UniProtKB/TrEMBL annotation:
Keyword Coiled coil: yes
Keywords recorded for this protein, A-Z: Coiled coil
Residues forming coiled coils: 99-133
Protein name, UniProt field: HlyD family efflux transporter periplasmic adaptor subunit
PROSITE patterns: PROKAR_LIPOPROTEIN (PS51257)
Major place of residence: other
Domain YbhG-like alpha-helical hairpin: 65-186
């Protein structure tokens, strides 16, 4: 008789456990988190807050060493000025002194070309009058010299025309693009320099400051983690049997009661997110055959502001009418 009562009691406990897992969704209280990553791999030179402190938007949290970034910014600004001067030079075109020098070079080349041409003509005339008076090699050298000086005169004329026409539009476009690229680089470094003074983006509470004074965090590593919002939300795992009772964004949206450990009265809330794809039941909801069942990740927002800490275990059940 005693064994039969024990078996009935054990069966009742098992059924109660199963009922709990089908009528309630386990989870924890969470806050929206903001992670502030390191914009540059610089040392922390000042810490203004500690974990657990409440902060206001814009309040300083910590400072990174700005020396290296400031030097890069100075170099980038110098490059901007250099590119701007190069563009101004292209817009202004050649100097009058350069044009005058090109005219003088052309005049000199033309004079040499005329002299070489006259010398060639004299040799040719003499060669026509007296067959053996001029050697063929001398005549060839005079002809080559005339052609060479004529080519130099043509090159000098082309150089003068290039100066007179001014800077090509394609060169000006390239110079403007170089100025824009240098300015963009300087702007990016200026933004990075401003980020070295890390401030709170919103009102909230500092959850963690992973690095300490003097540490050099790698780029992208979290310098501070802030919890924001005036109320937590419950991240829960909804069992299959309870999934059909919960909806999001519809007229039949179900409000839930969040049973918080350490409080007698449940807290009202509503479902703000409910995943369509199932996930495996989390470790703290496993019990016997339930280990093979699937659950659906959901988030429940509390209807009233609360100062409850993150991480508290909760169980969520549909609100009773």
């Amino acid at each position: 008789m005693t064994g039969r009562l024990f078996a009935l009691g054990l069966a009742a406990l098992v059924l109660a456990g199963c009922q709990r897992h089908t009528d309630e969704a386990p989870g924890t209280l969470e806050y929206d988190r903001i992670t502030l990553p390191a914009p540059a791999g610089e040392r922390i030179v000042a810490l203004h807050v500690r974990a657990g402190e409440s902060v206001k938007a814009g309040q300083p949290l910590l400072d990174l060493d700005p020396a290296h970034t400031q030097a890069n910014l100075d170099a980038a600004q110098a490059d901007v000025r250099r590119q701007q001067e190069a563009l101004a030079e292209g817009v202004a075109g050649p100097r009058q002194e350069d044009i005058a020098r090109a005219r003088a070079t052309l005049a000199s080349a033309q004079a040499q070309a005329r002299d070489a041409q006259r010398y060639l003509e004299r040799l040719q005339k003499v060669a026509q009058q007296e067959r053996d008076a001029v050697a063929a090699s001398d005549l060839d050298r005079a002809r080559a010299n005339a052609q060479n000086t004529g080519g130099q005169a043509d090159a000098a004329r082309a150089a003068l025309d290039q100066l007179l026409h001014g800077t090509r539009s394609e060169q000006l476009a390239q110079a403007r693009a170089a100025v824009a690229a240098a300015q963009a680089q300087a702007d990016a470094l200026r933004v990075t320099l401003g980020k070295l003074h890390v401030v709170a983006p919103r009102d909230g509470r500092i959850d963690d400051v992973p690095y300490r004074l003097g540490d050099q965090a790698p780029v992208g590593a979290p310098l501070a983690i802030e919890l924001v919002g005036d109320r937590p939300y419950a991240r829960i795992y909804v069992p299959v049997a309870m999934r059909a009772q919960l909806k999001v964004g519809s007229a039949v949206q179900v409000h839930v009661q969040v049973h918080v450990q350490g409080r007698d009265q449940p807290l009202a809330g509503h479902v703000r997110l409910l995943r369509a794809e199932p996930v495996f039941t989390p470790y703290y909801a496993l019990s016997g055959d339930d280990a093979t069942r699937l659950s659906y990740l959901a988030e429940v927002t509390l209807d009233q502001p609360s100062d409850l800490p993150a991480g508290l275990p909760v169980h969520v059940a549909p609100a009773r009418p």
